[in-house]
Amino acid sequence: MITLQGKNIYLRALEPEDLEFIFAIENDESIWEFSNTQTPYSRFLIRQYLENAHQDIYEAKQLRLAICKNDTFQAVGLIDLFEYDPRNNRAGIGIIIKDEGNRNQGIGSQALELLIGYSFKQLNVKQLFANINPENEASITLFTNFGFQKIGIKKQWNLIDGVYKDEAMFQLLNQQS
User: If you write DSSP's letter for every residue of the chain in order, what string do you get?
Assistant: First the structure.
């Protein structure tokens, strides 16, 4: 079971107790454009997902971790590695902090720092990438603070509310590998 410890937060593997938290995130239409979600998820499907969350990253090609404050087990966000490609040593990375009250407190920065370190040291990933809406200044600032560089714009990439929107791709190379 993965647990990564930061100064004020830790990242942990998903547990059955996370069902309602994940249900709320996956069914929040205001963030569907960031997760490419198009339909609601049932508790049944999320329960099945949690039952299979024990698969390692090599089997599932993804890793989702709960972001928790040090003084609680309750998740305040999620951070993911996705599209993990061990042949080419790369993965996508994404993060969400659920409630506005937990944003701008350094939680996202600590979580991102922990997962970058894990990706580069334990998984020997050569490169991480993030897909970010060019209008999402908070996410762009978060990722660029860790050295991610914009490497391109995917024009009219996502259809959101009947409008095609661009998506920026950011990349961080592991200079140690």
Answer: --EEE-SSEEEEE--GGGHHHHHHHHT-GGGHHHHT--S---HHHHHHHHHTTTS-HHHHS-EEEEEEETT-SSEEEEEEEEEEETTTTEEEEEEEE-SGGGTTSSHHHHHHHHHHHHHHHTS--SEEEEEE-TT-HHHHHHHHTTT-EEEEEEEEEEEETTEEEEEEEEEEE-TT-
Tokens of 176: 């140690």
Mind listing the pLDDT tens digit for each residue in 125-136?
999 999 999 999
Flag the least confident range among 32-46, 57-71, 117-131, 144-158. 32-46
CA gap 168, 149 in Å, rounded: 10
Instruction: Give the position of tokens 């698969």.
Output: 55
What span, in angstroms and rounded, lies between the C-alpha atoms of 144 and 162?
Answer: 30
User: Terminus-to-terminus CA distance in the chain, angstroms?
Assistant: 25
pLDDT digits (tens, 9 = 90+) for 103-131: 888 999 999 999 999 999 999 999 999 99
